[in-house]
Amino acid sequence: xxxxxxxxxxxxxxxxxxxxxxxxxxxxxxxxxxxxxxxxxxxxxxxxxxxxxxxxxxxxxxxxxxxxxxxxxxxxxxxxxxxxxxxxxxxxxxxxxxxxxxxxxxxxxxxxxxxxxxxxxxxxxxxxxxxxxxxxxxxxxxxxxxxxxxxxxxxxxxxxxxxxxx
Length: 166
Description:
By secondary structure, the chain is an alpha/beta fold. The protein contains four helices and eight strands, in the order E-H-E-E-E-H-H-E-H-E-E-E. It is 31% helix and 30% strand. The longest helix has 17 residues.
């Protein structure tokens, strides 16, 4: 591709009362550099080059209203439960690559620890695939799918990858 196009950021909208918890969760869970922390904006980047990716979180009353509305309708709640139950790789998710298998294993251990130590984060390790597993995508790709319940019932999954060359 010669156009110079690149994905450069992902934005989440969360209920205002969750912003500080999301910040604590992301600080503990992910290897990203926090470069902005304001009452109206939380920002993390993957590296010095913003074209390599950034993630933003903004507090909005609309996110609260959507979350509340989704839980009031049994059909929607059932559909969300069905979506939650499908293979994590087929569900909406945001993927990021860490620098090594060692870092991947360390971050996965942190996620599993936070499930118990910080239940208010709503973290769940939904699926883990390593080379050699029956469901592994390739002979070298490590995948861990981590849900962050604080983000709400949709678009709340991160796929952490590492490349381990055979």
